[in-house]
Write a structure and sequence with these properties.
Order of helices and strands of chain B: HHHHHHHHH
Radius of gyration of chain A: 17 Å
CATH architecture of chain A: 3-Layer(aba) Sandwich
Structural class of chain A: alpha/beta
Largest sheet of chain B: none
Number of strands of chain B: 0
Helix content of chain A: 40-55%
Number of strands of chain A: 5
Largest interface: A-B, 26 and 23 residues
Strand order of the largest sheet of chain A: 2-3-4-1-5
CATH superfamily of chain A: P-loop containing nucleotide triphosphate hydrolases
Largest sheet of chain A: 5 strands, parallel
Number of helices of chain A: 8
Mean pLDDT of chain A: 84
Structural class of chain B: mainly alpha
Shape of chain A: globular
Number of helices of chain B: 9
Helix content of chain B: over 70%
Distance between the termini of chain B: 45 Å
CATH class of chain A: Alpha Beta
Oligomer: heterodimer
Order of helices and strands of chain A: HEHEHHHHEHEHE
Mean pLDDT of chain B: 82
Number of domains of chain A: 1
Number of domains of chain B: 1
Chain lengths: ~190, ~260
């Protein structure tokens, strides 16, 4: 069904691209209760906008990591070998981590794998359903600066839905205190969905 | 190559299931090889029988005695039965393959969803699952091939005996032994042959002569039909299940949206 709406896909994409700047991390505040709901609604907006391939998902519970593959193979599921060059030096050198099977990753490691998989797959939008609760603030800060470094200069943007007010306060320039509607520019999609 | 890496890791990860498939595949290979070898032995003996019959009836003697007809019919009906059994085995394998393909794609739902969400087409994912099974089948085939090659003498002897017994049973149901003896007597009257009475019906080398080298037959058809059933059965099933899964993914996404809006 998505094939027949290139125009709609384009307008949806333009709308999302103006909302979130490329090469940056944006934070969207959502209350803890509606986190799953908003995450699903955003995902759906991409589906009905015909842009499923523009989206990468980062989710602590539904990781989408194939357990029998190595971390490296998981990162490369949808990209070529050269894509590894996009990894930050520190991660690329960590062959011990890259070669370990992905069946027993900690929530933080899983977050790294999901984020970099989206980045290496050149997905314009990497959408995270919060950050793992198990991560302490220093870990979160380390991850965010790592992610920002990797994002800089790419066409991808990292959008984090979070119920953590401190993250919003820490990044006032890239934060939304209320979840913006992605589907605003494409109201006509409903009848096709 | 990423694709082959995924295939081999998946096989290693799902060892137990694929071991079961390996056993079933080996069973199919054995059945198919045995049936093809039986057919081959059957055809050989039939040809030998016709040759010897010709030797006996050079001077225009009639070959239409009831016994001779019964032997001919016995060979033909046995051959038909082997072919039918083989097709039955192929059909069962195809059904199992369909079932396994469906179950497997369903059982690996989480993994299938991951691949689909990451943007792989159902065809890509199904191809991976099918190639996994194909590798397992080829493994089973090579294993069976090797084992039967090592044991070919005794296996072949077993099959020959089975073939003769089946043949005896086949025409002893149509002809009584006394008619057979009478008919043999008539055929062998005033003849000097290098074989005895029963040797006419079941030709083979004389007991003390060196036995011809034995081997099993039907390797190529076994490999081809085995791969064919897997590609057709599992491929179709996995593709259907995955397309369904993809539709469900898109559909659940839209229904949550409708709830929200």
């Amino acid at each position: 069904m998505t094939l027949f709406h290139p125009q709609m896909a384009q307008s949806f994409r333009d709308h999302v691209q103006t909302l979130f700047a490329p090469g940056t991390t944006s934070f969207v505040f959502v209350s803890a209760d509606s986190l799953s709901q908003t995450f699903a609604a955003y995902t759906q907006a991409f589906v009905s906008g015909g842009c499923t391939k523009a989206l990468a998902l980062v989710d602590e519970t539904d990781t989408g990591i194939v357990p029998y593959l190595s971390v490296r193979a998981n990162l490369l599921i949808n990209s070529r070998g050269q894509a590894l060059n996009q990894l930050p030096e520190a991660l690329r050198q960590d062959t011990l981590f890259l070669d370990q099977p992905a069946s027993q990753l900690t929530p933080a490691e899983s977050l790294y794998v999901q984020f970099f998989r989206g980045l290496m797959g050149k997905r314009p939008v990497i959408l995270a359903k919060g950050l793992p609760a198990a991560m302490v603030p220093t870990e979160t800060r380390a991850f965010l600066s790592f992610a920002n470094q990797a994002l800089a200069g790419t066409h991808s943007r990292f959008v984090i839905l979070t119920a953590d007010q401190s993250l919003i306060d820490a990044h006032p320039d890239h934060s939304f205190t209320r979840a913006p509607s992605l589907a605003a520019a494409s109201d006509g999609t409903k009848k096709h969905a | 190559m990423r694709f082959m890496e995924r295939v081999t890791s998946a096989i290693r990860y799902r060892k137990r299931i694929y071991f079961g498939e390996l056993l079933l595949a080996a069973l199919f290979c054995l059945t198919s090889l045995a049936l093809w070898s039986l057919r081959h032995a059957n055809a050989n003996m039939r040809q030998g029988f016709l040759n010897r019959l010709e030797m006996l009836t050079t001077n225009g003697q009639t070959t239409s005695s009831r016994v001779v007809q019964a032997v001919k019919a016995g060979y033909a009906s046995l051959d038909g039965r082997y072919v039918a059994t083989w097709w039955l085995a192929v059909a069962i394998t195809l059904l199992l393959s369909l079932g396994f393909g469906w179950w497997s794609a369903h059982n690996r739902r989480a993994e299938s969803e991951t691949y689909l969400i990451l943007g792989k087409s159902p065809f890509d994912v199904a191809a991976q699952y099918v190639v996994e099974s194909l590798l397992v089948f080829v493994g089973a085939f090579l294993f069976v091939g090797l084992v039967t090659f090592l044991l070919s003498d005794s296996l072949n002897h077993l099959l020959m005996t089975q073939s003769r017994n089946a043949l005896t049973a086949e025409f002893s149901s149509t002809v009584s032994s006394s008619t057979a003896t009478q008919s043999l007597k008539a055929l062998f009257e005033h003849k000097l042959t290098e074989f005895t009475g029963p040797g006419l019906f079941f030709p083979g080398p004389p007991p003390n002569a060196p036995q011809p080298s034995h081997q099993l037959y039907g390797f190529v058809p076994t490999l081809l039909t085995g791969c064919g059933t897997i590609i057709l059965g599992q491929g179709t099933a996995a593709l259907a299940e995955l397309s369904l899964l993809r539709r469900q993914l898109l559909h659940t996404a839209s229904s949550t949206d409708q709830v929200n809006s």
